[in-house]
Amino acid sequence: MNDAGITLALSKGRIFEETLPLLAAAGITPSENPESSRKLIIGTNRGDVRLIIVRASDVPTYVQHGAADLGIAGRDVLNEHDGNGLYQPLDLKIARCRMMVAVREGYDYEARVTQGARIRVATKYLNAARSHFAGKGVHIDLIKLYGSMELAPLVGLSDAIVDLVSTGGTLRANGLVAVEHISDVSSRLVVNQASLKLKRTLIQPVIDAFASAVGDAARRHP
Ligand code: ADP
Ligand code: MG
After folding, report:
1. Four-residue CA torsion sign, 125, 182, 175, 55
2. Is the beta carbon of 14 within 6 A of some atom in ligand 1?
3. Where are the alpha helices (DSSP H) in the chain?
4. Whose CA is nearest to atom 4 of ligand 1?
């Protein structure tokens, strides 16, 4: 643990970019852009705040073990993460998308489901897929993938995928269509519970600044 200051775990790309305005609201400016820098520990204008850049699905792990005091992770990732010790005080409403079931164009999903057929589902979201299909009483064979799920139905690995969709452009480009909405996804702030007790004077102002920045953004784009 970084005893004197606080460490915030972020992932590159969308989450980093959409977090910048929230950091700015908390008076924090990263000293480098992780897209162009190879550094995994990034300083800020504040000597008591540093950022670490980790894989999106690893954010909860760093925070749970206290290697980071705070982190930002998608609801998709948090739902797949088993373990406790994570306080989730705030929905940041960033990196918004939807978790969907998608199939190849022309595949009669409804008919297959009504016939009670067993459906092969490829996804990296095992928990989400399991509970979605269990809730519908549909029997599935789950195939775990780590990415590029869109490929699976095209090459006969699966009948359906469970994946995140925002514009639908990637599905369209691959001849897939969304057939079911599972949940709305956005990113949340997660905080290590022990850190919150020990470093409240540093952490609480960050939570408060993020909360008011999210409120402001929500008022601008309701
Ligand atoms: P990785 O490739 O490491 O899985 P991504 O950059 O694709 O990470 O996604 C990181 C997070 O961004 C996801 O956990 C999710 O919460 C969010 N996300 C993923 N895809 C989308 C999307 N199409 N639109 C908006 N947010 C998304
Ligand atoms: Mg991705």
Report:
1. negative
2. yes
3. 14-25, 59-64, 75-80, 109-114, 126-136, 151-154, 169-173, 193-198, 200-220
4. 56
What are the CB-based long-range contacts (under 8 Å, 24+) for 83-88? 85/192, 85/193, 85/194, 86/60, 86/190, 86/191, 86/192, 86/193, 87/190, 87/191, 87/192, 87/193, 87/196, 88/188, 88/189, 88/190, 88/191
Neighbours of 206 (CB within 10 A): 22
pLDDT, position 168? 96
Q: Tell me, in angstroms, the distance from the centre of ligand 1 to residue 93's CA.
A: 13
Is any ligand 1 atom within 6 A of the Cβ of residue 56?
Answer: yes
Closest C-alpha residue for ligand 1 atom 1 = 56
Instruction: Determine phi and psi for 136, rounding to 5 degrees.
Output: -90, -5
Write down the residue that tokens 């939570």 correspond to. 207
Ligand 1 contact, 15 CB (< 6 A): yes
pLDDT in tens, 137-171: 999 999 999 999 999 999 999 999 999 999 999 99
Q: Output the furthest CA–CA distance in the chain (Å, rounded).
A: 62
- Dist. CA 28–CA 26, nearest whole Å: 6
Q: Helices 200-220 and 14-25: crossing angle, nearest 10°?
A: 110
Alpha carbons 20 and 111: distance in angstroms, whole number: 46
Read off the tokens for 145: 């993938």
How does pLDDT run across 45-77, given as a tens digit for each residue? 999 999 999 999 999 999 999 999 999 999 999
